[in-house]
Amino acid sequence: MTKHSSPGHKPQTSYPKLHLMAVAVCSAVMILALTLLPSPDATATKTVRLKPTSANVEPTPIEQAQELVDEQLVEPQMETVIARNWQDQKVRSGDTLSHIFKRVGLGSRDVYEVMAGQGDVELLKKIHPGQTMRFDIEEQKLVALEYVMSRTDSLMIEQSENGYVAEMQIKEMVPFTSYAEGTIDSSLFLAAQKAGLSEGLTMELANIFGWDVDFVLDIREGDSFRVIYQEMHLDGEKVKDGEILAAQFTNQGNTFTAIRYETSDRGASYFTPQGESMRKAFLRSPISFARISSHFNLRRKHPVLHTIRAHKGTDYAASRGTPIKATGDGKVIFAGVKGGYGKVVILQHGQKYRSLYAHMNNYARGIRSGTRVKQGQTIGYVGSTGLATGPHLHYEFYVNGAVRNPVTVKLPHAEPIAKQDKEAFLTVAQQMVGQLSTYAAAMESEKVANLDQ
Ligand SMILES: [Zn+2]
After folding, report:
1. 84-170 sits in which CATH class?
2. Ligand 1 midpoint to CA 395 (Å)
3. Lesser CB count within 10 Å: N end or C end of the chain?
4. What's the CA-to-centroid distance between 393 and ligand 1, angstroms?
5. If pLDDT is split at 50, 70 and 90, which confidence band does 263 have?
6. Whole-angstrom Cα distance, residue 279 to residue 108?
């Protein structure tokens, strides 16, 4: 796998001014970080947990809009707090609403009245084992019923003058910002685990940098990572992971930095601090996790013809019928049989790039000359048509009409940050890059302090 040294991948040391600015801004955070540092231990990996996400990062326009909406929604509800005398019932397997009502001393008439109520009472038909129903019964009369569907969602049913009224209550999770860093001894997975990252976040981290780093082949001892991520809390407890906000990965001396940015029209994506996409316009390989059986070699002895003949592509060994993915967005310019290639699909990607997929068993549905395809879309299936010793995919990649080695060719980035978002993005990116350094420095000084003791 190649390392790219485009301007998009300069290490963050190219921001001395910015760094100082960020340190000043984040000094309050740093104090908090230091006080919250976990107890000293000998491992190279640690996690810092910090407070509210939006304290340090400018909210996006969407978040600002959402906050306005939330305020309007939340305000009126604050007034109605009624002390309830709850008795809880766990839903058991095989339970019906009648069974549960019976257990708390209510009858079929109560079931009927509740089900005749206003609102989403139909949800009560979907109860399943493990869930909780809470009853407030005064003088043998059901006053309120809370059907707890999940940690965040419940249905509150209350008695009113006109029968029961059901209302959904959704608790909002609070995002907390956390920081973790680690140094790899053997695998990213182990180092991430040591640093307190969940499996999901580790996968996400690998996905973000997966365009630049092959986490199976490229990883070396001493590679390291820094991650600022969110944890979603409810009632003071972590419920699930949130998003990775910023991350850095140093692989064999090359440091890659990724910043998350979300816009209403384009959704969320990761960019370099300069605004280049972390994604590439092309997948490195058209088949996931396939073994390369024959490399690009312009002076190879052909296995079938036994003559010196250029091998203008990369062969991936895969069983017949394995899906073949378009490596980039493009247009089918050829889908048919072509000499030794057998059944072959050729894609044109803009003016500059072209990709070719040969020896297919068959084409995917709808793949014909003129069809537009998306990156990752299945365009056909592995076979051995044409001159092939067995089922495999022969993949070729062209830049400006010249054939190139698909494994080592420098791949262009996907769309960078949109022009209209660039200024706002750069501000966020500066803050996040600064925070990564600040947190790392806080960790470092903590380590030094421990040594001094
Ligand atoms: Zn080949």
Report:
1. alpha beta
2. 7
3. C
4. 7
5. confident
6. 59
Each residue's pLDDT tens digit, 37-64 = 333 332 333 444 444 444 444 444 444 4
How far is Cα 99 from Cα 92, in angstroms, rounded to an integer?
10
pLDDT category of residue 130 using cuts at 50, 70 and 90: very high
What is the location of CATH 2.70.70.10 in the chain?
291-404
Q: Which CATH architecture has domain 291-404?
A: Distorted Sandwich (2.70)
Amino acid in the structure at residue 53: T
C-alpha distance across the termini of the chain, in Å: 44
Instruction: Supply the DSSP string of 365-417, one letter for each residue.
Output: TT--TT-EE-TT-EEEEEB--SS-SSSEEEEEEEETTEEE-TTTSPPPB---S
The average confidence (pLDDT) of the chain is: 83
Using the mean position of ligand 1's atoms as its centre, give its distance from the Cα of residue 248 in Å.
37
pLDDT exceeds 80 at position 28: no
CATH 3.10.450.350 intervals, the chain: 7-62+174-271, 84-170
Q: How far is the CA of 341 from the centre of ligand 1 (A)?
A: 9
